[in-house]
Amino acid sequence: MFREAFDLLEAGEPDRAAGLLTEAIAAGGDAVGYQRLLLAEVYDELQREAEADAELTEALTWFDAGIAELTREELDTLYMVADGEQRGVDLAIGRLRARQALEMLPDELDEIAEQWLDEDESGPAVSSDAMDLLFWPRAEIAEAHRLWPEADLRTDADQVMIDLEVACRQLSEAGVSRVTLVPLTVARVRESGIEPTTEEAREAYLAEFAGKAGSIAWPPGRNDACWCGSAAKYKKCCGRPGLQ
Which residue, among 154, 140, 135, 139, has the nearest Cα to 206 in the 3D structure? Predict the structure, then answer.
């Protein structure tokens, strides 16, 4: 059922996914918390913010109750990242995801769950390095294309932003610990006098402006303004699930 609901969401049928998940939650079982997490994503996609937050709150209550029912032995091994019991690990990770979505400050158990998320079948994530990415903000793309057509800039701003968001997610999944987006603007280019038409020029701009005012830590909070400059909340813009 969970896979079917996720596939419906990915296929652009959030209403059907919501119906399927609602039925599954009403039926009860040992996966209700995880189903509520996915239903919250579906409601976000449908722009039903209050219902999404309600599902996240219910999911967190479910995960907290599950953690409270762990035996002393299960709870102790949860803090041993190499040897934790799977039931406790799954509950801790689900709890972490609910708390992150609700923008709660991390606690000790969240930090342990983060360590588990860094583990996969082959061991730790491939990298913990930080990475800076240079990009043209949405409002700058058309003017930059007009001024420097030889730079071969893509002009579909919406798709450019989506592609950058997907790239950020892939970097995060690969283990990059911090992604920072560094905006390149027409004003900055004019001030420097170096036309942004070559890879060498873009690398020079990245080196010059990384860490300077205007750099954007990715991802923003789900209720914060989206990094792309659309003025929409991140969760309703580039933070939507299923982007590709």
Answer: 135
